[in-house]
Design goal:
CATH superfamily of the largest domain: P-loop containing nucleotide triphosphate hydrolases
Shape: globular
Number of strands: 12
Number of helices: 11
CATH architecture of the largest domain: 3-Layer(aba) Sandwich
Helix content: 25-40%
Structural class: alpha/beta
CATH class of the largest domain: Alpha Beta
Largest sheet: 7 strands, parallel
């Protein structure tokens, strides 16, 4: 079995690619499984992938490297129950050092699994980084982004449809020179042909006998994670006017607009909304969003909503902004919104279970 460790910064498009890859494989009657990961416990990615009936487990409240035991347990359970040909393990977007903390331990403890590290980079975000225009102020956050690229077996420049041919050529001129030993793919993960090419590259990839660990400063890495506030909310919207879906859509847009008005750098905003037979995932990063899609006009008296926000700010401010949006929406639409679960925090200092550097 191949285990595809899928890394890449917040908002790079990992979940969309994995979900579409699984859909293609299932169509071909090939077995797959997915493990999601986040520093919080209310994961939009898990809810979204699970809604398609894809075999799934999640590692919550920690990154893979700091909860290796649970990751290993989930992989074993999924392998025994599903016998997948490919298993995707999507690391949280602020995580790096996967070679030393996951790939090398697996090579020692689970040699029957072949590990491939696929790292996604949002082409627009990478362009900003290379041009020195990245909105994230702190070098420690940029440090995580760069380290993620450095340890890829397969480096996917994702969302290339959102940049020009000239911009793509500029990125290539630097990336191919910086990482001459890597497999580099240009990808639009909404295109079946691009997903197929990624899957074929994974299947054909042969890992070298020597895995190269990152030279990484954990204090700088930890500082970078601590610059990002996490906000997770699970809410239910109830409306006598049967417009709960439209209200959920408005909440997503208003939270996004409020964060932008406060000039805060967005790592990722994710929303998963579900009502009866209707479901929708929406997301936004600092470079783009998919809010151009019009909300369903299907009448509904309720809508469940998961909110994941990763923003460069203080957790208390992020919590206050989201709460303010919800209160204003309740007044405007005369609806009832129940906050079922809520948490806001800064990720803890990364302390991996294993770190093999030899």
């Amino acid at each position: 079995m191949k285990l595809i460790l899928t890394g890449g910064f917040l908002g790079s498009g990992k979940t969309t690619a994995i979900n579409n890859a699984c859909a293609q494989l299932i169509k071909e009657n090939r077995k797959v499984a997915v493990i999601t990961n986040d520093q919080g416990e209310q994961q939009v990615d898990s809810a979204y992938i699970n809604s398609f009936g894809i075999p799934l487990r999640e590692v919550a409240n920690s990154c893979f490297c700091c909860n290796y035991t649970l990751l290993d347990k989930h992989i074993q359970t999924l392998f025994e129950e599903e016998q997948p040909e490919l298993m995707f393990a999507e690391a949280v977007g602020s995580c790096t050092d996967l070679v030393s903390t996951i790939a090398k331990p697996f090579a020692q403890f689970r040699p029957n699994y072949e590990v491939v590290i696929s790292v996604f980079a949002d082409a627009s975000l990478l362009l900003q980084l290379l041009e020195g225009k990245l909105s994230f102020i702190k070098e420690s956050i940029r440090y995580i982004f760069k380290k993620q690229l450095e340890e890829a077996d397969i480096l996917i420049l994702n969302k290339v449809d959102l940049i020009t041919a000239e911009q793509r050529a500029f990125i290539d001129s630097i990336i191919y020179n910086e990482y001459p030993d890597k497999i580099i793919l240009h990808q639009n993960s909404l295109l079946e042909a691009d997903i197929k090419n990624w899957l074929e590259t994974i299947v054909q990839f042969k890992a070298t006998s020597t895995l190269r660990s990152l030279d990484i400063d954990y204090d700088l890495y930890g500082e970078g994670e601590a610059q990002l506030a996490w906000l997770d909310k699970k809410i239910s919207i109830h409306s006598y006017n049967h417009n709960a879906i439209q209200i959920a859509d408005r909440i997503a847009r208003d939270i996004h607009n409020t964060i932008l008005q406060h000039q805060l750098a967005i790592g990722h905003l994710k929303y998963f909304m579900e009502s009866k037979k209707w479901k929708k995932k929406m997301s936004a990063t600092m470079t783009h969003n998919d809010f151009n899609l019009v909300a369903s006009d299907e009448p509904s008296d309720y809508c469940n909503m998961l909110i994941n926000a990763r923003v460069q700010t203080d957790p208390s401010l992020l919590r206050e902004l989201a709460y303010g949006v919800i209160q204003n929406i309740m007044k405007e639409f005369s609806c009832k919104i129940i906050i079922e679960k809520s948490s806001s925090f800064i990720p803890a200092y990364p302390r991996p279970t294993h770190r093999f550097v030899g």
